[in-house]
Design brief:
mainly alpha
């Protein structure tokens, strides 16, 4: 045992010193004297990606006055909320399991058909597939 292993150093005759990135002239470069001074923000952008149906956005308010926001909410949100509640479809709450299953099957006929076909073909294959012939009594005695 000679201690901790270290890679042997080999001389490189083409060594030119510590690597530095090349500096390429940039004709569009300018020095910003006041980088913290930004233009006024006068709009809001919202980008939402969702897989859920029925998400709605409207009446976005940005303000530093709480009273103005409350007044805007009372004037726009409450009437809109009542209107949307009246427009929602009425769902029968007394639907049983069979009615729910029937509705789902009628809405997803292709998926239900493919599932049924796969289940039937798998069942037939498992039940009807030919297996090896049954062992004879002589083979059973020999294996025992």
């Amino acid at each position: 045992y000679k201690g901790k292993w270290k890679a042997p150093k080999i001389d490189n005759p083409e060594y030119k010193g510590v690597w530095k990135p090349r500096k390429i002239a940039n004709p569009d470069y300018f020095f910003d004297e006041a980088p913290a001074m930004l233009p006024t923000i006068d709009s809001v952008g919202i980008d939402i990606w969702t897989m859920t149906k029925g998400i709605l956005f409207d009446n976005i308010v940005v303000s530093d006055d709480l009273e103005k926001v409350k007044a805007f909410t009372q004037a726009t949100f409450k009437p809109r909320q009542k209107l949307e509640e009246r427009q929602k479809p009425k769902i029968a709450k007394s639907q049983g399991f069979l009615e729910t299953a029937k509705t789902l099957l009628s809405e997803n006929l292709l998926a239900a058909g493919v599932t049924l076909l796969v289940l039937l073909s798998t069942t037939l294959w498992c039940c009807c597939a030919g297996s090896q012939k049954a062992p004879t009594e002589a083979e059973i005695r020999r294996l025992a």
